[in-house]
Amino acid sequence: MAESAAEAAAVASGFVCVQHSPNMSTYRKMEQIVRRMQAEEGGVAIRTVKSFLTKIPSVVTGTDIVQWLMKNLNTQDQAEALHLGTQMAAHGYFFPISDHVLALKDDGALYRFQNPYFWPSNCWDPENTDYAVYLCKRTMQNKARLELADYEAESLARLQRAFDRKWEFIFMQAEAQARVDRKREKLERKVMESQERAFWDVHRPVPGCVNILELDIKKSSRKINSGRAHKSVYGLKEEGRADGSPPSPPPDVKRPSVEELKRQVRFMHAQMERHGMKTSKVADSLIAYSEQYTDYDPFLTPPDPSNPWASDDASFWELETRKEPSHQRVLRWGFCMDEVLKDSVGQEQFLRFLQSEFSSENLQFWVAVQELKRLPLRKVADRAREIWQEFLEPGAPNTINLDSHSFERTAHNVREPGRFAFQDAQEHIYMLMKTDSYARFLRSNNYQELLAARKMSDHDQDRRTSFEKFTRNVELSLRGRRHRPSSARAASSN
């Protein structure tokens, strides 16, 4: 009666998403069998087993379960009954009390029925934070009886790294739950701890085992309402609802048209072709980028001369724009090709290198297209035709090498020229220079000699600057000493 009342309350509150899960019919059939097994009349004999100095409450043997299934489901095949029992154990409806592998064996091993609160029909969708709270709580309890397995200890360490910033909050939650559990009676606490462990054995199985509750993609595609309720271990949450109100009923679903299906197929193909990257790699790339540019940020590394944003002294910017680049500026060209192209001196050095390789037309075309994007609109059409005649027209004086697709797109755009008529051709030339010419430029003798020469020049300049600072400080100190006696005499005369 209590279990039926709990289930009715769950259904009334919206926790049981009957119409959303494609496996719900399977869950219902299994739960009917489990209720019959737990019934006082005609069910499996649930008893308390006495062990050495301890009692093991509310358990049954694997042989009892198999025999009951054969008797009440009208099957004479023991293997069929064992298979059905294993499926029910894998779904977490009953579990071995001394093993993390959820399987049924036809022997004297002890099993315990799961609390209906943890049944799969309640649409559990536990998060990693819930799992972290559970594992953290296990470390605070009886270590002899609830010691973490190797894979659980590895999971705890991994989760601690992932949730480093909010680990204190997770630890506080685990500590609060552990205090509540200690107030329960010993036998009740044993049962609840084993049921909670079995719940996580279903949703975070042992390595080598499969989470049987993971939905098949074909079944998932038949779900009609995408706004279904997700349930966390610590409460209900629904996508798109923050007030906790019950989920809205599914709207009337119309059969999609052929065009809509084609659009969905195109969208799925585009998603499959997207380049994915792990968050850890993105974080490593961001850290490497930040470390690389730290010396070039005047707020992080004080420059010499002073930071123009803080002192209103523009000397730093004047040094950055002069024709003789510093060693730090030349070194920055090696970060990426964009650093070369946005530096006037770097662009000039790169052009000289391309001229030595007889491919300077690539950079000239790229620069011409960049200038075209900044021209007034009245001059764009004439300048676009000039660029076409100089670089792309058959027999042009500075013909560039384009693939057929980019050439056709560009020829079509030039019929009605705009600022971005050469966008495809410019991107093709940019990638050609980036993957081919730029790498050779960094390895060239011209760049390496310039880098070494600017390093020596900056070293000599630093020595001169240090000597000038020293002489200036000495002069200021001597000047201060000269003024002190005169000021002392004036004070005595007064």
From TrEMBL:
CDD domains: DEP_RGS7-like, GGL. SMART domains: DEP (SM00049), G_gamma (SM01224), GGL (SM00224), RGS (SM00315). Gene3D superfamilies: 1.10.1240.60, Regulator of G-protein Signalling 4, domain 2, Transducin (heterotrimeric G protein), gamma chain, Winged helix-like DNA-binding domain superfamily/Winged helix DNA-binding domain. GO terms for molecular function: GTPase activator activity. One of its GO terms (cellular component) is neuron projection. InterPro entries: DEP_dom, G-protein_gamma-like_dom, GGL_sf, RGS, RGS6/7/9/11, RGS6/7/9/11_DHEX_sf, RGS_DHEX, RGS_sf. It comes from the Eukaryota. Residues 336-451 form the RGS domain. One of its GO terms (biological process) is intracellular signal transduction. Residues 226-257 are annotated as: Disordered. Residues 40-115 form the DEP domain. Keywords: Signal transduction inhibitor. This is Regulator of G-protein signaling 7-like isoform X1. The gene is LOC116939431.
